[in-house]
Design brief:
The structure is a single chain. The chain is mostly helical and about 350 residues long. The protein has three domains: about 10-55, no CATH class; about 60-145; about 170-325, hpI Integrase, Chain A. The chain is built from 15 helices and four strands. A two-stranded antiparallel sheet has the order 1-2. Strands 3-4 form a two-stranded antiparallel sheet. Strand 1 and strand 2 form a beta hairpin. It is extended. The chain starts with 8 loop residues before the first strand and ends with a helix.
Length: about 350
């Protein structure tokens, strides 16, 4: 029976004699495997290589990464956060796993780390996440007294997101609703009328909906929010088919995967000719809509589960820096204030 070994790298080389030879490696950049594929020697070689890889070499960056993954700082995060961490931790291990900890004291090591980040610059977000993850591991290690300096502290970001004016307006919402299938129509309404994150909405069960409120625990903040359901959202929820214990499902009535939902959402945006807006922008748009309706910062924070500071940041810089409706509201309030003063002065 042929055993499939994950990650084996096959390399074909031409020798000086002109002969072609095939070599196999445990993973890209890993040790060469002995024997022929499928043989006991080959499998034993593969197993030994991966066991050695899982055992961190003492006094190297591997050690710090292993300690971080075993810590509450890692295990206490949500499953999706842990998956993201692991993705970038693997990149760090492949590049710097065997780096001796004493090398972190070298003044030039920050430059080495930045050169590595720059190799990923064609994908700025990936580069930033990789850098941030490395900085997080080193910050953890410094806090635990394992190292004395974090050469990745501060700076290092390449991606600059400008979400100013990234608001789902009535025109964009109407365009999406005109072409959206029922499963994505409901997702749009839930996000717009609750202001919650994609991951939390995809995991939201029907038991969280009482008929008047939606209750959920946010995976990122662990904050419990109880959201009053508007009459408009209630119409969508009450007519939705309950094909699962979860409110949002795909066309087969199965829970969405994150990748599957993102792909379907992107296709819907293209069909509706919507550019420059993301599903996550619906969360900020909910904050904006509440503000334009006259809700205060504390009221918005209670509704969406943001912190007061985060609501203020969204309203101040990322979304409402140049919103004409707020300016018009401000002028009307000023006019009403002046009118009251004139009335009182005339008495």
């Amino acid at each position: 029976m042929r055993v499939h070994l994950k990650g084996v790298k096959k390399v074909t080389a031409t020798l000086a004699t002109g002969e072609t030879k095939v070599y196999y490696y445990a993973w890209s950049g890993g040790p060469r495997l002995e024997g022929q594929p499928g043989s006991a020697e080959f499998i034993r070689s593969y197993t030994t290589a991966h066991q050695a890889r899982k055992t961190p070499s003492q006094g190297t960056l591997f050690t710090l990464i292993s300690e971080f993954k075993a810590s509450a700082e890692f295990t206490g995060t949500s499953p999706s956060t842990q998956r993201n961490y692991r993705r970038y931790l693997r990149l760090i291990e492949e590049e710097f796993g065997d780096l001796p900890l004493r090398a972190l004291l070298d003044p030039e090591i920050r430059g080495e780390f930045k050169c590595w980040r720059d190799k990923l610059a064609n994908k700025p977000r990936t580069a930033d996440y990789a850098w941030t993850t490395l900085a997080r591991v080193l910050s953890f290690a410094k806090d635990r007294g394992r190292i004395t300096v974090n050469p990745c502290a501060g700076g290092g970001r390449l991606y600059k997101a400008d979400r100013i004016d990234r608001i789902w307006g009535e025109t964009e919402i109407a365009s999406m609703l005109s072409v959206a299938p029922p499963e994505l129509e409901l997702a749009l309404m839930l996000a717009l009328w609750t202001g919650q994150r994609q991951g939390d909405l995809l995991r939201l069960p029907w038991s969280a909906y009482t008929g008047t409120h939606v209750r959920l625990r946010q995976s990122k903040t662990r904050r419990v929010v109880v959201i009053p359901v508007s009459t408009y959202l209630k119409e969508f929820l009450n007519r939705a088919q309950r094909r699962s214990t979860l409110i949002l499902t795909n066309t087969r009535g199965l829970p969405w995967t994150s990748d599957g939902f993102r792909t379907s959402w992107s296709k819907l945006c293209a069909k509706a000719k919507i550019e420059g807006l993301t599903f996550h922008d619906l969360r900020g748009s909910a904050v904006v809509r509440l503000a334009l309706a006259g809700a205060t910062v504390p009221e918005i924070a209670t509704f969406t589960g943001h912190s007061l500071k985060d609501v203020e940041v969204i309203l101040d810089g990322h979304y409402l820096g140049r919103d004409i409706k707020l300016a018009e509201n401000a002028v009307r309030k000023l006019e009403m204030h002046e009118a009251r003063n004139r009335t009182n002065s005339g008495k």
